[in-house]
């Protein structure tokens, strides 16, 4: 049954090529940089491995990775964000162009583009180094103006919060989309969810939900927590991603749907949340039901965690995965 459902969803999405869902992503973009190499000795200066770097890879990260996932799923994708006036910012813009993403990027001469540098050896991450600085307030106001203009040609809004300052005006963004009856999906960050008041759906992972709303002892207590959050924030639904336990969707009417994980092997969970919210946005923009949307998201997430680094799931990969369910 699940195999047939997956094949049906892929077929439906494939038929939307001439009228693809229009999704706008707003949030914190970053450059994911990987240094790959081998280790065959320990440093004489300190008890740490010496990595002989042989390969460097760069990928879009943060909200830009959400946009990349949307393109892979066939959506017409726009991205609003800001970068610094630096080498990493120019590289982000180049990668966005290569990915076919309609990017509306504001350059802040006073900020530094966020970089996540991962040093890898023998398929293991040895260390991650982060370089970041919050964008300028005035630059973010410019993004808000473009956001209002882009809403006129948007079916679904995704607000990708990585806590880097790019969503300073998120409350206004939610209100503006709501006034036009446009669904708003939010990937949250931090422990203050009040700023997401009025969104259509939040998609926290287990740790994020615990940090913001508290732990639970059993499924009944979890459902109570979810209902309290939905009521307090006046949102339509909460999708909780639960790693190996799959995903659970809690709706404001009290109904609950659960989907088990479809991951066959887990190599790297980096960016899995980006894939989930992208799949949900495409499904909602295509008019799929909640059940169809979370099924598509579960299958897509199962594909990307089987890859190294932040990755995407294409329609062809999802169709193939459907045959292996």
Give me the secondary-structure topology.
Elements: H1 2-14, E1 22-27, E2 29-42, E3 49-62, H2 63-72, E4 76-84, H3 87-98, E5 102-108, E6 114-121, E7 124-131, H4 137-150, E8 156-160, H5 170-178, E9 184-187, E10 201-202, H6 206-213, H7 219-233, E11 237-241, E12 247-251, E13 256-259, H8 272-285, H9 290-304, H10 315-322
Parallel strand pairs: 1-4, 1-8, 2-6, 4-5, 8-9, 9-10, 10-11
Antiparallel strand pairs: 2-3, 6-7, 11-12, 12-13
Helix pairs in contact: 1-9, 1-10, 2-8, 8-9, 9-10
Briefly, what is this?
The protein is α/β, with parallel strands linked by helices and 325 residues long. The chain has helices at residues 2-14, 63-72, 87-98, 137-150, 170-178, 206-213, 219-233, 272-285, 290-304, 315-322; strands spanning 22-27, 29-42, 49-62, 76-84, 102-108, 114-121, 124-131, 156-160, 184-187, 201-202, 237-241, 247-251, 256-259. Helix 1 packs across helix 9, helix 1 (2-14) runs antiparallel to helix 10 (315-322) and helix 9 (290-304) packs across helix 10.
Please describe what this structure looks like.
- By secondary structure, this protein is of the alpha/beta class.
- It has one domain: Ribokinase (UDP-N-acetylmuramoyl-L-alanine:D-glutamate ligase, 3-Layer(aba) Sandwich).
- It contains ten helices and 13 strands.
- It has helices spanning 2-14, 63-72, 87-98, 137-150, 170-178, 206-213, 219-233, 272-285, 290-304, 315-322; strands at 22-27, 29-42, 49-62, 76-84, 102-108, 114-121, 124-131, 156-160, 184-187, 201-202, 237-241, 247-251, 256-259.
- It has a nine-stranded mixed β-sheet, with helices on both faces.
């Amino acid at each position: 049954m699940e195999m047939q459902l997956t094949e049906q969803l892929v077929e439906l999405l494939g038929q939307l090529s001439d009228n693809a869902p229009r999704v706008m992503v707003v949030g914190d973009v970053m450059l994911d940089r990987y240094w790959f190499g081998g280790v065959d000795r320990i440093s004489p200066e300190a008890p740490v491995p010496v990595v002989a770097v042989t390969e460097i890879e760069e990928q879009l990260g943060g909200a830009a990775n959400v946009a990349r996932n949307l393109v892979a799923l066939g959506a017409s994708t726009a991205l609003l964000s800001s970068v610094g006036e630096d080498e990493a910012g120019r590289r982000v813009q180049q990668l966005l162009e290569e990915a076919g993403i309609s990017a509306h990027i504001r350059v802040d001469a006073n900020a530094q583009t966020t970089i996540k540098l991962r040093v890898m050896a023998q398929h293991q991450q040895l260390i991650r180094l982060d370089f970041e600085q919050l964008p300028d307030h005035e630059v973010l106001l410019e993004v808000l103006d473009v956001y209002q203009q882009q809403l006129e040609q948007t079916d679904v809004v995704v607000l990708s919060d990585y806590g880097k300052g790019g969503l300073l005006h998120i409350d206004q963004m939610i209100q503006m989309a709501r006034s036009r009856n446009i669904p708003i999906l939010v990937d949250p960050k931090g422990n203050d969810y009040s700023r997401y008041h009025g969104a259509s759906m939040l998609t926290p992972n287990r740790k994020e939900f615990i940090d913001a709303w508290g732990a639970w002892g059993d499924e009944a207590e979890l459902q109570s927590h979810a209902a309290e959050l939905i009521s307090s924030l006046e949102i339509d639904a909460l999708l909780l991603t639960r790693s190996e336990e799959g995903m659970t969707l809690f709706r404001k009417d009290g109904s609950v749907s659960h989907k088990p994980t479809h991951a066959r092997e887990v190599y790297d969970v980096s960016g899995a949340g980006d894939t989930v919210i992208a799949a949900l946005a495409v499904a909602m923009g295509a008019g799929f039901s909640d059940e169809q949307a979370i099924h598509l998201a579960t299958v897509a997430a199962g594909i990307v965690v089987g890859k190294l680094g932040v990755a995407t799931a294409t329609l062809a990969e999802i169709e193939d995965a459907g045959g292996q369910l």
